Amino acid sequence: MSTQHLDGIKACVFDAYGTLFDFNSAALAASDEIGENWQRLSELWRQKQLQYTWLRGLASRHADFWQVTGEALDFALNTLGIDRPGLRERLMDLYLHLGCYPEVPETLHRLQAEGMRLAILSNGTPAMLAAVVHHSGLENVFDAVLSVEEVGVFKPHPAVYALACERLQLAPTAICFLSSNAWDAYSAKASGLRVLWCNRFGQVRERIPETPDGEIKDLSALPDAVSSPVCGREAMGESPTRL
């Protein structure tokens, strides 16, 4: 697997859920109550969570991600016929304490040590993001933790990706965006950001407009893809890579 540089990157901006933090870890932690259906519950919960954000965006009926997450969980529990006292509350609390993927801390600290600016750009509410970042011990890593609540619409609306440029005061081509969600990665590219798709789950490429600059299987490959002897130099154009 080759490692080539994306030139001119001054900041790495990460999606949160599924990219930095393992959304399956909530159901896994409660598998003693859920039983053998814990993986199915987690999949359905995540599927409906995303669907509800897209539907609310299309209908201009915004609600924050905490509400949407709870509504998606209610659907999943009801669909699977799971009705245990206190389980909903336990799962929602666990969602505030998701574990990060194994390579995340080392990757972020290496990038930080090399002078790279780091940020999160997520559908999560500020409170949700503060909780999960604190739980993972990453409070001193990020230059910015950005929530869609600042613009009042979920991804993949272009205003969300523009928020990263605005808050970091960088051109889109100076930002490398990372997401494990293909639709998120492709949408960020359509908004002008440089993009590496973190394809954790071995998915096939989407058949939608735009193509990420590269693909990595996890974040451990990121420092070699964006670091350079002269950090922060101006972006000089795009060069598609597969990493």
TrEMBL record:
<dbReference type="InterPro" id="IPR036412">
    <property type="entry name" value="HAD-like_sf"/>
</dbReference>
<keyword id="KW-0378">Hydrolase</keyword>
<dbReference type="InterPro" id="IPR006328">
    <property type="entry name" value="2-HAD"/>
</dbReference>
<comment type="similarity">
    <text>Belongs to the HAD-like hydrolase superfamily. S-2-haloalkanoic acid dehalogenase family.</text>
</comment>
<dbReference type="InterPro" id="IPR051540">
    <property type="entry name" value="S-2-haloacid_dehalogenase"/>
</dbReference>
<protein>
    <recommendedName>
        <fullName>(S)-2-haloacid dehalogenase</fullName>
        <ecNumber>3.8.1.2</ecNumber>
    </recommendedName>
</protein>
<dbReference type="InterPro" id="IPR023198">
    <property type="entry name" value="PGP-like_dom2"/>
</dbReference>
<dbReference type="Pfam" id="PF00702">
    <property type="entry name" value="Hydrolase"/>
</dbReference>
<comment type="function">
    <text>Catalyzes the hydrolytic dehalogenation of small (S)-2-haloalkanoic acids to yield the corresponding (R)-2-hydroxyalkanoic acids.</text>
</comment>
<dbReference type="GO" id="GO:0018784">
    <property type="term" value="F:(S)-2-haloacid dehalogenase activity"/>
</dbReference>
<dbReference type="InterPro" id="IPR006439">
    <property type="entry name" value="HAD-SF_hydro_IA"/>
</dbReference>
<dbReference type="InterPro" id="IPR023214">
    <property type="entry name" value="HAD_sf"/>
</dbReference>
